[in-house]
Amino acid sequence: MSGERRPPVAIVGGGTIGVGWAIVFARAGHPVRLHDTDPQRLEAALGEVAQRLRDLADAGLIAQRPREVRDRVTAAPELAAALVEVAHVQECAPEDLELKRAIFAELDREAPPQATLASSSSAIVASAFASGLPGQARCLVAHPANPPHLLPVVEIVPAPFTSQEAIESLSLLLSEAGMSPVRLGAEIEGFVYNRLQGAVLREAYCLVRDGIASVEDVDRVMREGLGRRWAIVGPFETADLNVRGGVAAHARRMAPAYARMGAQRGQDDPWTDDLVAEVATQRRALLDLERWDRRVAWRDRVLMALTATLRRGEEPGR
Fold first, then answer.
1. Average pLDDT of 65-91?
2. For position 318, what pLDDT does the model report?
């Protein structure tokens, strides 16, 4: 941490996501005002911040003293006090459209005009709760994975009316706080994270329903196979590294089978030649085929390291 003074950040909502966001900004050096309308929840949230910081320190994941970081987080029972001179407000209220509309109307009235206003919404787009506000140009979604202080990805989802300045400002703020912002090109319900997660869950439920696999078997396939690999490389890079010749060769080999599987579920989304070509072009820009063998070897080394770590932390009897 440098001695640079960071601007204050307000967190509105003291649940699990709010606690995680408070840690994200506090460990980056920001004074954090944590607000919740429930005094008991607010008090409990401060205790949870302290405990999670101790856990991070025990795991060697934070260089600062937990108490030093915890002291940057202050309770703000009154919203107006939480918003004084803040550069950013992160709303973490329940997934309720009318509640978010009311909160954003109040935030737009009370927050400094230069502050960005972001929702942690898991599926609701900003145009549904911020449209028509005088300051709608500074409103958007910043959807984190849960918990935010352990999973760095955060989806930046602007509304059609969100200004480029707000997008750039928030992306920079999050990057400097150690997060990994992913900017979406347009609003879509559920964004990327929950649409991918939802696709897996839909198939998982179907496999249990049809008697193909038990709940534990599905989880085991993910935990000891797909999930372990996806922790290192995502689905496109997995396909790219699974077949010599890359993702284009993988698509030639596997696309018909995946199309049949989709058709069984009533889903007709074939991998067209143009789509495969676009994916292959993007992958080759990231990894040319001359480096393919080295990347496969890297993946395997990291998988070995991850497997060793998981074995050390395995629950007794599993």
1. 97
2. 58
Any idea where the domains of the chain sit in the sequence? Answer: 9-183, 193-312
CB atoms within 10 A of CB 38: 13
Provide the CATH topology of domain 193-312. Answer: N-(1-d-carboxylethyl)-l-norvaline Dehydrogenase; domain 2 (1.10.1040)
Output the pTM of the full model: 0.92
Residue-averaged pLDDT of the chain: 96
Rounded to an integer, what distance in angstroms lies between the CA atom of residue 158 and that of residue 118?
9
For the segment 117-145, the average pLDDT, to the nearest whole number, is 98
Fold classification of 9-183 (topology level): Rossmann fold (3.40.50)
The answer to whether residues 16 and 120 touch, using CB atoms and an 8 Å cutoff, is: no
Is 3's pLDDT higher than 80?
A: no
